[in-house]
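Structure first, sequence second, as always.
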């Protein structure tokens, strides 16, 4: 996946300013950066729910931004943390919405769609909640249903906006393992993350956004240095090496 020169303006102000993002197929890219840096906006540009002012998103030979909505939705899905007011739907129906781009215009869901939805719910550990009203779920349960809906869409490019938000530590690790399993199966994943240690532990590459611009990008170890963390977030941190994985381990200075 290679996005180039993406720009987006709000109230005349560039909030995404000529951004290039490249994430190899079948790998996991983390987008990090301070509040308001433009991470969510960038994901929305990639999935086409916000219109880019300029730029292209090349994936498997086509520019996703040029595709019709339905065709694009067969390739790229965004698991969001917001946008879930009262739906009045059962959990299984929310996840079935992910099948919309695959179901013929005048057709209805079939056995295959129901199996894919059941598998997606099982993958996120939400099968026991299938018939519950989505509106009664906790924040973490909703987050997992959002992911199930994106998985049911069977995208080749999976975008996740702060997917670990609301999740307890075990649910966080299991979600990231699930993303890792997806990339091992050839899916390309891009997640906006706040937890730098989660990014360091799971991502293959990191893209650092600040004020709508990419200020660093590359593999985790080369990008996540104490200098960069200091520059971007204005905090002090030592970057250690995880004793078993060899990946960066960030210890914030709280003294
Ligand atoms: N609906 C909106 N209307 C006006 N400005 C917005 C809107 N949504 C976002 N913005 C602004 O656009 C900029 C980028 O926001 P965005 O949500 O993409 O940042 P982010 O990096 O995802 O932030 P966070 O880490 O806080 O979730 C911010 O300055 C934000 O205030």
């Amino acid at each position: 996946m290679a996005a180039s020169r993406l720009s987006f303006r709000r109230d005349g102000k560039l909030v995404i300013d000529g951004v290039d993002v490249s994430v190899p197929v079948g790998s996991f890219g983390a987008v990090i950066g301070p509040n308001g840096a433009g991470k969510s906006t960038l994901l929305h540009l990639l999935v086409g729910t916000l219109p880019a002012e300029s730029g292209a998103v090349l994936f498997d030979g086509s520019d996703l931004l040029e595709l019709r909505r339905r065709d694009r939705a067969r390739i790229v899905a965004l698991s969001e943390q917001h946008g879930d007011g009262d739906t009045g739907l059962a959990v299984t129906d929310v996840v079935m919405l992910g099948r919309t781009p695959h179901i013929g215009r005048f057709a209805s869901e079939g056995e295959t769609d129901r199996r894919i939805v059941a598998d997606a719910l099982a993958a996120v550990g939400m099968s026991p909640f299938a018939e519950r009203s989505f509106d009664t779920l906790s924040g973490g349960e909703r987050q997992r249903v959002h992911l199930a809906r994106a998985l049911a869409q069977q995208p080749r490019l999976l975008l996740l906006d702060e997917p670990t938000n609301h999740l307890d530590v075990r649910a966080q690790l299991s979600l990231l393992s699930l993303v890792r399993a997806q990339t091992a199966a050839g899916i390309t994943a891009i997640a906006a993350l706040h937890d730098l240690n989660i990014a360091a532990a799971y991502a293959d590459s990191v893209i650092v956004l600040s004020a709508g611009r990419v200020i660093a990008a590359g593999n985790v170890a080369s990008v996540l240095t104490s200098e960069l963390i200091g520059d971007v977030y204005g905090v002090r941190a030592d970057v250690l090496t995880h004793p078993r994985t060899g990946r960066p381990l960030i210890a914030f200075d709280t003294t």
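Margin note: The pocket of adenosine-5'-triphosphate is lined by residues 10, 15, 33, 35-41, 192 (CB under 6 Å).
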